[in-house]
């Protein structure tokens, strides 16, 4: 009989739990949509604009003040990430933390290799610089 009492959930608690699950599902869908729109913008940049792939080349472009936007993969090492963010702050350049890992970022650029840092020097036909992505 003890198990029977504990298995009856408090209605308020169960409602709260369900609403949390629904909000998580909605936020996941939103994140997926954001990632998809970012990927489509990236494809357009690679086709019509100019982008620099790789950490070393991106840092060089930041130092020369050529970068307009920096994308950092989710699994970029913290020290490297903070260094790129610091240089971007000095260059007054926007930083976007890409939701996917380095292989997803490389694939989104249409390349067959990993890329942890990407620098966009010319957006081309894409609206990637105008829209500030969360």
What does this structure look like?
The protein is 54% helix and 13% strand. It contains 5 helices and 4 strands. The chain has helices spanning 2-7, 11-48, 55-63, 78-90, 102-108, and strands at residues 50-53, 69-72, 94-97, 117-122. α3 (55-63) packs parallel to α4. It is elongated. The model has no long low-confidence stretch (mean pLDDT 82).
Task: Give a short overview.
This protein is α+β, with helices and mostly antiparallel strands and 134 residues long. Helix content is 54%, strand content 13%.
Structural class: alpha+beta
Radius of gyration: 20 Å
The share of residues in extended strands comes to 5-15%
As an assembly, this protein is single chain
Q: What integer is the average pLDDT?
A: 82
Number of helices: 5
Count of DSSP E strands? Answer: 4
Overall form: elongated
The ordered string of helix (H) and strand (E) elements is HHEHEHEHE
Key phrases:
134 residues, alpha+beta, 5 helices, 13% strand
């Amino acid at each position: 009989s003890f198990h029977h009492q504990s298995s009856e959930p408090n209605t308020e608690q169960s409602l709260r739990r369900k609403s949390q699950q629904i909000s998580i599902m909605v936020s996941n869908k939103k994140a997926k949509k954001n990632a998809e729109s970012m990927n489509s913008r990236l494809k357009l940049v690679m086709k019509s604009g100019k982008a620099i792939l790789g950490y070393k080349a991106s840092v060089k472009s930041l130092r020369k003040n050529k970068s307009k936007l920096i994308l950092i993969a989710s699994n970029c090492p913290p020290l490297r990430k903070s260094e790129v963010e610091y240089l971007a702050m000095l260059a007054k350049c926007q930083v976007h933390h890409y939701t996917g890992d380095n292989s997803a970022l490389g694939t989104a650029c249409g390349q067959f290799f990993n890329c942890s840092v990407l620098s966009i020097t010319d957006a081309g036909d894409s609206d990637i610089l105008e829209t500030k992505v969360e």
